């Protein structure tokens, strides 16, 4: 069964209404606040350091870390300026960094990775809250568009927009405050230190083609285990949670394969593409989980305000139907993505 993600992808990339004010430019960087810090590789150096198939595991993973660290820094001013999709892209960069620190424990020393991964989780949480505040109202508004006008009872669109406007403003304010905080500046300095030199894990000097496939395979096996758990889970919240956990594992497997692909080649890139498809359909399913809760909350708010809550119940049921379709799609997508032909290079 083919996956139809056109509408949901459009929802997830829709931009929230621009705020009337713009945040101040970024303050001085980590070196100014914390003293001397390692020099960061320039974009030209980063672009020219693509590892070869003969590279060591440390060189391959370090190149990927540098690319994502550069993306993270480059996107911060765009997020401050409220540019389209910038929060999403910065969130992806932070996730790729954290996932890489977790996936390649034999290449990156634990002492270098543990605290930085925790700080990236903190940053990713702030970016995630801001992103959800952008996407969720757009998702619900998109769900309302095909509803016949006679079934739109009450000021539904206005309530959806008004409900999320304060959340968007608050999430954005908290994110900008975080950018100006010593904690974020310390995170950037720690990231600089990690990417300025060589990685120090026990297998960092070994050939990448001998080390990295095992890391990708571990991430795949975790995804497989969680997909099986999701299939056995009881319908309802337990299954929704299990599918969300499976999505996170698929994303980790995808990023690990992306990092390894310069040394492995097209086989790793094809596997990463398959994991991206799994991640995408499970991400769309998670959107319906969050949207159902939002529709319920909106319906309660409308009822308490003396409005007819019929349309919010209709919205809820549309999300239930969409979730059912996406679960069926996820089974088909996983069946294809987990085929052995995409994984032979790992063994």
Structural class: mainly alpha
* CATH fold type: CHAD domain
Shape: globular
Count up the domains.
1
How many H/I helices?
12
Largest sheet: none
How far is it from the N-terminal to the C-terminal residue, by CA? Answer: 29 Å
> Unreliable runs, pLDDT <50, ≥5 residues?
1-38
- CATH class reads Mainly Alpha
Named CATH architecture: Alpha solenoid
Q: Secondary structure elements and their pairing?
A:
Blueprint: H1 6-12, H2 30-34, H3 43-47, H4 57-80, H5 86-103, H6 110-144, H7 156-179, H8 182-196, H9 208-232, H10 237-264, H11 266-304, H12 310-337
Helix pairs in contact: 1-6, 4-5, 4-8, 4-9, 4-10, 5-6, 5-10, 6-7, 6-8, 9-10, 10-11, 11-12
Describe this structure in words.
With 347 residues, the chain is mostly helical. The protein has a single domain, classed as CHAD domain. It has helices at residues 6-12, 30-34, 43-47, 57-80, 86-103, 110-144, 156-179, 182-196, 208-232, 237-264, 266-304, 310-337. It is globular, with a radius of gyration of 22 Å.
What's the quick description here?
The protein is mainly alpha-helical. 73% of the residues lie in helices and 0% in strands.
Key attributes of the depicted protein:
globular; 347 residues; mainly alpha; 12 helices
């Amino acid at each position: 069964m083919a996956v139809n993600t056109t509408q949901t992808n459009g929802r997830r990339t829709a931009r929230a209404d621009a705020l009337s004010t713009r945040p101040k430019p970024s303050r001085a960087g980590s070196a100014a606040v914390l003293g001397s810090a390692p020099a960061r590789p320039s974009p030209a150096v980063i672009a020219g350091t693509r590892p070869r198939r003969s590279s060591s595991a440390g060189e391959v993973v370090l190149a990927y870390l540098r690319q994502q660290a550069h993306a993270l820094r480059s996107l911060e001013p765009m997020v401050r300026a409220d540019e389209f999709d910038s929060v999403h892209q910065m969130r992806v960069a932070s996730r790729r960094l954290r996932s890489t620190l977790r996936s390649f424990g034999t290449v990156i020393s634990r002492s270098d990775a543990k605290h930085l991964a925790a700080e990236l989780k903190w940053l990713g949480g702030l970016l995630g809250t801001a992103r959800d505040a952008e996407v969720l109202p757009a998702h619900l508004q998109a769900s309302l568009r095909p509803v016949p006008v006679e079934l739109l009872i009450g000021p539904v669109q206005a309530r959806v927009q008004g409900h999320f406007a304060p959340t968007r403003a608050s999430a954005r304010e908290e994110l900008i405050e975080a950018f100006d905080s010593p904690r974020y500046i310390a995170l950037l300095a720690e990231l600089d230190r990690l990417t300025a030199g060589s990685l120090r894990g026990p297998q960092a000097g070994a050939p990448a083609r001998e080390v990295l496939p095992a890391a990708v395979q571990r991430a795949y096996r975790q995804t497989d285990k969680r997909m099986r758990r999701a299939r056995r889970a009881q319908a309802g919240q337990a299954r929704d949670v299990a599918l969300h956990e499976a999505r996170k594992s698929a994303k980790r497997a995808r990023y690990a394969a992306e990092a390894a692909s310069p040394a492995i080649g097209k086989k790793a890139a094809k596997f990463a593409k398959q994991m991206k498809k799994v991640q995408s359909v499970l991400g769309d399913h998670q959107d319906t989980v969050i949207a159902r809760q939002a529709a319920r909350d909106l319906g309660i708010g409308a009822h308490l305000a003396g409005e007819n809550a019929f349309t919010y119940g209709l919205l809820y049921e549309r999300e239930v139907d969409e979730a059912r379709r996406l679960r069926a799609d996820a089974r088909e997508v996983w069946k294809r993505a987990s085929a052995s032909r995409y994984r032979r290079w790992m063994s």
